[in-house]
Amino acid sequence: MQADEQIYSLRDKHASLERAIEEESERPYPDDFRLSQLKREKLRIKDQIFQHGD
User: Fold this and answer.
1) d(CA 15, CA 1)
2) Whole-angstrom distance, CA of residue 36 vs CA of residue 50
3) Which residue among 24, 25, 36, 52 has the highest number of C-beta atoms inside a 10 angstrom radius?
């Protein structure tokens, strides 16, 4: 069960990062540096999800 909880937690973080990316992208003057950080973190979380899913 603990692995399932970790995956759910990671998926929540992934979804939260997706929302943050969308919000930043929709701003009149999006911060490109912040966007790249958010996208990098989102990919890191995605990799962790796939590692736990194996």
Assistant:
1) 21
2) 21
3) 24
Q: How far apart are CA 14 and CA 17, in angstroms?
A: 5
Helix (H, G, I), strand (E, B) or coil at 52: helix
pLDDT in tens, 1-54: 587 899 999 999 999 999 999 999 999 999 999 999 999 999 999 999 999 876
Q: Which helix (H) or strand (E) holds 7?
A: helix 2-26
Domain boundaries, the chain: 2-53
Cβ atoms of 14 and 46 within 8 Å: the answer is yes
Provide the residue type at 36 as one letter: S
